[in-house]
Design a protein that fits this description.
mainly beta; Immunoglobulin-like; 3 domains; 11-stranded mixed sheet; 1 helix; about 0% helix
Length: about 500
């Protein structure tokens, strides 16, 4: 139930340490906590915990809870919740010491309040800082409730780099101290806070630093509040600073001297990527510890979790041609499409003559930001070597040739798999193919690659571990590809 904080999707007991575990690529729905792991004690830490690539939907209390951990990692997790709690936490580190890494996660909690990321008693060392980087956080529903994008509390040696953290609350208690996009609280040491977007979407603070000595470095940030009268608060006893200029004046040592205060121009509250024209573009500083962004794109370098790049009309993942039963199967996969009207497949025998024949027109997806697969079959391919090219046309009539590939139909008889059917081993018989390695993939009917290797000549291939049934065997060499059926008995 939602009200029982002992119920978790994945949990580990604090009765003993479960070392060297990975929790990855799961879809975890409901529960009080999405992932809850705890070592035995703050002085007896669990080690080697790696939480990667999970989608955590509607946790009520916490998305990921990391307690009594040694050098744990939470990376590329997506946490979204319908929780309405006022003390929800997206990712919580409690006594997570010795270089905790919280990287490339997304926390979206539009109805809850609390903490997007909360580090409490999490200590790195002088030689091994913890790192919270490239995270996107939106938390809060716009009410006057305490709320924090990122909170670092009694946690030493922490790098807070390239995050986009947004607090959506209208609380202004204590000049907004209880409503901050970023807060360093209590006595900490050696915190570096660089290249972040800290945005209070309501009327609270972009930033609050409780103890001046906690901060080792603070610069190249975008500090912004939508409607708040106060931008930041430097130590609890100082005056509240209404503007970037007053904030820079009160902070020591030139802190935030290169920072800005402007609307970062995100796509939406559910998509914190920045858009063209964002003031954050090219305003960050290079950091050796972080070389790419939340999407694994190289840093150029922009403030926040996203490195902006102009969208391409088509992002092509692959374009292949496979010979199957004397027909050519043409397949291509795109990752995204913008303003895309249709594709054309063209073919020719003599590429130097540039004498292309249109084979087919295929309607495209127009606008799509997801993996899309296409396939057509050339039922009457040319004999011998021929070429196929993929053309893309926009709605405005502009076009682009994406890729050209070659096929040799004669070569279907140059490789033979025997015996077939087979029980334990198969061999290849090759004709007119010398001094070339042949790549072999044996693929189940469900599309899973069971065996993958490279061979030369008639090398024997062991298939004894395969279950009985029908498989596809894909043979590739040079620029050619052949698919045949293989029966295992």
């Amino acid at each position: 139930s939602q009200d029982n904080d002992r119920r978790s999707i994945i949990a580990s007991s604090s009765d003993f340490n479960n070392n060297d575990n990975e929790i990855s690529h799961n879809i975890l729905t409901d529960g009080s906590h999405g992932v809850y792991v705890s070592g035995m004690a703050f002085n007896n830490l669990e080690s080697g915990m790696f939480i990667f690539g999970n989608t955590i939907v509607n946790p009520w209390f916490t998305g990921i809870h990391l307690q009594n951990q040694d050098a744990c990692i939470a990376r590329k997790n997506y946490i979204t919740t319908n929780s309405t709690r006022t003390n929800f936490t997206g990712i919580y580190g409690y006594y997570a010491d010795n270089g905790i890494q919280i990287q490339k996660n997304q926390v979206y909690a539009p109805n809850a309040y609390g903490y997007g990321i909360y580090l409490y008693y999490c200590d790195g060392t002088a030689g091994d800082y913890g790192e919270t980087s490239n995270n996107m956080i939106f938390i809060g529903g716009g009410a006057a409730t305490s709320n924090y994008g990122i909170m670092v509390n009694v946690s030493d040696y922490q790098n807070i780099y390239y995050n986009t953290a947004i607090s959506n609350s209208t609380s202004t208690i204590n000049s907004g101290e209880l409503n901050c996009a970023f807060k360093s609280w209590n006595t900490c040491n050696n915190q570096r806070v660089i290249n972040n977007i800290f945005w209070n979407y309501g009327s609270g603070l972009a930033i609050h630093v409780d103890i001046a000595a906690s901060i080792e470095a603070l610069d190249y940030n975008d500090l912004y509040t939508s409607s708040g009268a106060v931008l930041g608060r430097w130590v609890t006893t100082s005056s509240a600073d209404a503007s970037l200029a007053s904030w820079q004046a009160v902070t020591p040592g030139g802190f935030d001297g290169n920072s800005i205060s402007a609307d970062p121009l995100i796509v939406s509250t559910g998509d914190l990527h920045i858009q063209s024209g964002s003031p954050c573009i090219d305003q960050a500083t290079d950091l050796a510890d972080v070389t790419d962004d939340i999407d694994d794109e190289s840093r150029a370098t922009d403030i926040g979790a996203d490195e902006y790049s102009d969208p391409l009309p088509i992002e092509l993942l692959s374009f292949t041609a496979d010979i199957e039963s004397s027909q050519v199967h043409l397949r291509w996969v795109t990752v995204s499409e913008i303003n895309n009207d249709y594709y054309s497949i063209e073919k020719c025998q003599d590429i130097s003559a540039n004498n292309w024949e249109e084979l087919a027109l295929i309607p495209a997806e127009g606008q799509k930001n997801a993996i899309t697969s296409y396939e057509i079959i050339d039922e009457r391919p040319y004999v011998g070597i021929s070429y196929y090219r993929l053309k893309q046309t926009d709605f405005d009539g502009s076009f682009e040739y994406l890729k050209t590939i070659a096929v040799n139909l004669n070569n279907t008889g140059d490789i033979c798999v025997y015996p077939n059917p087979a029980e334990n081993h198969i061999r290849l018989f090759t004709k007119n193919i010398t001094d070339q390695k042949i790549s072999i993939e044996i693929i189940s009917l469900e599309g899973e690659i069971k065996i993958q290797k490279e061979v030369e000549g008639s090398e024997e291939i062991n298939i004894s571990n395969l279950a009985e049934g029908v498989y596809f065997i894909k043979l590739q060499y040079d620029n050619f590809s052949i698919i045949q059926k293989l029966i295992k008995y």
